[in-house]
Design goal:
493 residues, GMP Synthetase, Chain A, domain 3, 28 strands, 30% helix
Length: 493
């Protein structure tokens, strides 16, 4: 469907379908670049190619050329650590790494031969030979290996077919209100599956221009910091009709009062979103449509949509997906499921075709899904109360004084938290922020004692996943003695 749409429109007159700081391509130009690269890939006879490319024409052309050449594409997110990148390349059996000359030095120790120079979409690129030790067996339909950050340091490879990704793109095209001539602004890396599908494939189907500015202009700073003013500015400067946001990005836009005219479709996903933030966005009349998905389901499973937007829910399932909630509250998914995990022969679904998501939720009478956190993160207090830490952490980080939070309380009489303050926030301000959050929580979920983190939770220190979620087990181990002292002090008092 993607390649057929691109080919059919290559002979028609269309405006640019991709714009980036280095240039622009219409359907005809993208089709031409795709075919040139397709021919070179066939000459090489390679089957698995990793890429480390910024958003732009080269990534788009390479991604689509690999679909056409039936190569397995292994995109590497720019926020992965060198160790994680090495793991992805070794575990996937990548035969080449496609990158730019300015980035090639990062991979010098991995290269196993002379680079092959290429020009893609007018920009210089390099194919670095890797010569893997082994080529893991993959299902014949595998088109992409997307790596999830997961809850450990070693990313997990999810195997997807072209059909998996196209079904999601077609379904998303059907529920958004985008039309030819609109502009989608890519704020997140194209190497992340959600932006790959929502920011490249959906615009190609819809005739929407995909705008891919350099990362330094989007307002994202590294893997975690956000300049809300810059993000709001580029949304308006580019006259964006749509964009994909994380909860933290939405909070930054709300704080900096994104000005009208607004985009028409702001897709929201990636983590728990506090209801108060959604209500603030609604008060500002921001067109926020929260969704839910997993890499294992080709990114999106359910989403709110124009005319059917239930605040606090993540919407109803897309047409190709079915969801139900089992007796334990876990969300089960059926339809458009992945081909399996890389190097893991265990079955990914049960005998009836249902995939256990690991997420907790409920479905209301109208079919809208509401999330309640991760099953493995849920803990039970000493009073028998079930708590999903994402809920409380989300309320804490909604406060402007608190950048990050990790909640603990398994089998304890009260909850404690490790807090990362925003730069300049004083302990007294944190105390007031925690007190304000507690005022809106039931007594069993409140934070009675807390500590200030020694440093922010990050990929570098192993205390956060690539998408910024706290790794609680690692954080708890690091601060175990000080957490214990909080409980001792409370008992003594």
């Amino acid at each position: 469907m993607l390649l057929e749409t691109l080919e059919s429109r290559a002979n028609e007159t269309w405006p640019a379908i991709i714009e980036w700081d280095g240039g622009a391509l219409d359907y005809a130009g993208l089709w031409r670049e795709l075919n040139i690269l397709h021919g070179k890939l066939e000459t090489l006879g390679t089957h698995r190619i990793a890429s480390a490319l910024p958003n732009g024409g080269p990534f788009a052309a390479a991604d689509l050329a690999m679909l056409a050449a039936r190569c397995v594409h292994i995109p590497l997110p720019p926020f992965f650590s060198p160790r994680q990148i090495g793991h992805c390349l070794a575990s996937s059996g990548a035969e080449y790494l496609l990158t730019q000359p300015r980035l090639a030095s990062r991979f010098a120790s991995l290269r196993q031969g002379e680079p092959i120079p290429l020009t893609i979409a007018g920009e210089a690129c390099l194919l670095l030979p890797l010569k893997p030790d082994t080529l893991p067996c993959l299902p014949a339909e595998t088109a992409k290996i997307t790596y999830t950050s997961g809850s450990t340091g070693a990313p997990k490879g999810v195997l997807l077919s072209r059909e998996n990704m196209e079904r999601t793109a077609i379904a998303l095209h059907g529920v958004t209100n985008l039309s030819p001539g609109d502009r989608h602004l890519c704020l997140t890396p194209m190497a992340v599956l959600l932006e790959n599908i929502g920011g490249l494939y959906v615009p190609l189907l819809a005739g929407v221009t995909s705008v891919m500015p350099a990362a330094g202009r989007t307002g994202l700073i590294g893997a975690g910091a956000i300049d809300g003013r810059a993000m709001a500015g580029i949304l308006q400067q580019q006259h964006a009709a749509s964009a994909i946001l994380s909860p933290a990005m939405l909070a930054a836009l709300v704080d900096h009062r994104l000005q009208s005219p607004y985009p028409r479709f702001l897709a929201l996903g990636g983590a728990h979103t506090p209801l108060a933030l959604l209500e603030r966005a609604e008060q500002l009349e921001l067109p926020v449509y929260q969704g839910y998905g997993l890499s294992e389901c080709a990114s999106v499973v359910a989403v709110n949509r124009p005319g059917d937007n239930r605040i606090g829910s993540v919407g109803r399932p897309l047409d190709h997906s079915r969801i139900r909630v089992n007796h334990d509250g876990e969300i089960l998914i059926k339809g458009n499921l992945f081909l399996g995990y890389l190097n893991d022969p265990s079955p990914a679904v049960d005998r009836d075709g249902w995939y256990r998501s690991g997420d907790l939720g409920r479905i209301d009478d109208s079919g809208h899904l509401f999330l309640r956190g991760r099953r493995r993160n849920r803990f039970i207090t000493a009073f028998g109360r079930n708590i999903n830490p994402e809920w409380v952490e989300g309320e804490l980080t909604l406060r402007k004084e608190i950048a990050q939070a990790a909640l603990f309380g398994e089998a304890r009489p009260f909850n404690t938290a490790i807090l990362t303050p925003v730069p300049g926030a004083r302990p007294q301000q944190l105390a007031m922020a925690v007190r304000a959050v507690n005022g809106n929580l039931p007594d069993y979920a409140r934070v009675k004692r807390w500590l200030i983190a020694d440093e922010p939770f990050s990929l570098a220190n192993g205390e956060a996943t690539a998408d910024g979620q706290p790794r609680r087990a690692i954080i708890e181990t690091r601060y175990q003695d000080r957490i214990e002292s909080l409980y001792r002090e409370e008992i003594a008092s």
